[in-house]
Q: What sequence folds into this?
C-alpha cells in the first residue's frame, strides 16, 4: 500500500527589533518585534503510515521526540482540531541550533501544521492554522504567516512589512543554550522603559534603514550573564557588518551584510576564528 510523504524546509527567524512591554496576568509578555525569516533551515519529512499515532525521529540526539517536541504537539493539535485519526511519521533534520533564539522549534511546529494540512487535505485556512499555532507557541503564527512582520500582543498579531533588497547575514552560535523563559523572567522593566520606542515603517528601503532600528531588550539579561555575546557583536561589525544584534533570547548573534561577497568573507574568517571553541557559524540571507 502506498503512503504519501512530503519534504519541507523549516526556516529560522531573527528579531530585528524586540521590545518587551509588560508582563501579563497569564504569565506571557506583551511585545513589539520586527521578525524576519532567514534561509538557515531545518529539513522536515512528513509521512503517512498504516498504524495510527505520531512518531518523531531526528538526527539530533539533543532533540526530544515525545510530547515535549513542538512538532509532535503540532501534529497532535491538528488531528484533534480536525477530529480525525491518522498514522503520521515526522523526521526532523536539524540545521538550526537548539535553544539558540532562532525559533527552530516554533518553525518546525508551523511547518508541520501547514504540511499536514496539505497532505491530509484538511482544507484549514491560514488564519485557522495560525489560531491552532497560537496554542502551541507564541512564535508559531509568524512562521505560518510566511512574511516579514511586526508582531505585537504575545507575538500573534501580525502586520506585514517589506524589506528590500535581500540582506545577507552571518550568525555566530556559541556552545551554550539560553532558556527563553529565563531571559524574560530576568528582565528589569525599569531598564526596558528607557528604550526609545520608535515608529516602525511598513517598508525598509535599504540595509542602513534596517540597521538603524536594531534593538533587543533581552540583551540586558543575556549579555549580563554571558558577556562574550557583546564581544561577538563587536567582531561582526569589525568584519564589515552594517549592524549586529543578539537573536531573540540568545545566545546566537547575527550581523547584517549588504552583499554576499562581504558576508562570505566574514563567514570564512569567523568560522576559522571560532572553530577551536566549537561555536557554530552560519551564512544565510533574508527570505
A:
Amino acid at each position: 500500500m502506498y503512503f504519501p510523504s512530503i519534504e519541507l524546509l523549516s526556516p529560522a527567524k531573527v528579531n530585528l527589533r524586540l521590545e518587551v512591554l509588560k508582563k501579563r496576568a497569564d504569565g506571557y509578555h506583551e511585545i513589539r518585534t520586527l521578525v524576519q525569516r532567514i534561509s538557515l533551515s531545518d529539513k522536515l519529512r512528513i509521512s503517512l503510515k498504516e498504524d495510527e499515532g505520531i512518531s518523531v525521529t531526528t538526527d539530533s540526539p539533543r532533540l526530544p521526540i515525545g510530547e515535549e517536541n513542538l512538532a509532535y504537539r503540532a501534529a497532535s493539535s491538528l488531528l484533534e482540531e480536525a477530529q480525525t485519526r491518522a498514522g503520521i511519521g515526522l523526521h526532523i533534520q536539524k540545521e538550526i541550533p537548539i535553544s539558540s533564539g532562532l525559533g527552530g522549534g516554533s518553525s518546525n511546529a508551523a511547518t508541520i501544521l501547514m504540511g499536514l494540512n496539505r497532505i491530509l487535505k484538511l482544507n484549514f485556512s491560514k488564519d485557522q492554522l495560525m489560531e491552532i499555532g497560537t496554542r502551541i507557541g507564541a512564535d508559531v503564527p509568524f512562521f505560518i504567516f510566511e512574511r516579514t512582520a511586526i508582531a505585537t500582543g504575545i507575538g500573534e498579531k501580525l502586520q506585514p512589512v517589506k524589506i528590500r533588497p535581500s540582506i545577507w547575514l552571518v550568525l555566530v552560535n556559541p556552545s551554550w543554550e539560553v532558556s527563553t523563559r529565563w531571559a524574560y523572567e530576568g528582565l528589569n522593566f525599569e531598564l526596558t522603559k528607557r528604550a526609545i520606542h520608535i515608529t516602525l515603517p511598513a517598508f525598509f528601503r535599504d540595509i542602513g534603514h534596517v540597521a538603524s532600528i536594531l534593538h533587543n531588550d533581552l540583551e540586558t539579561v543575556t549579555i549580563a550573564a554571558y558577556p562574550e555575546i557583546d564581544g561577538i557583536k563587536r567582531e561582526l561589525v569589525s568584519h564589515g557588518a552594517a549592524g549586529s544584534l543578539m537573536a531573540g533570547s540568545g545566545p546566537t548573534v547575527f550581523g547584517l551584510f549588504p552583499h554576499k561577497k562581504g558576508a562570505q568573507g566574514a563567514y570564512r574568517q569567523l568560522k576559522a576564528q571560532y572553530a577551536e571553541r566549537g561555536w557554530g557559524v552560519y551564512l544565510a540571507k533574508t527570505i
Summary: The chain has two domains: 5-160, 162-285.
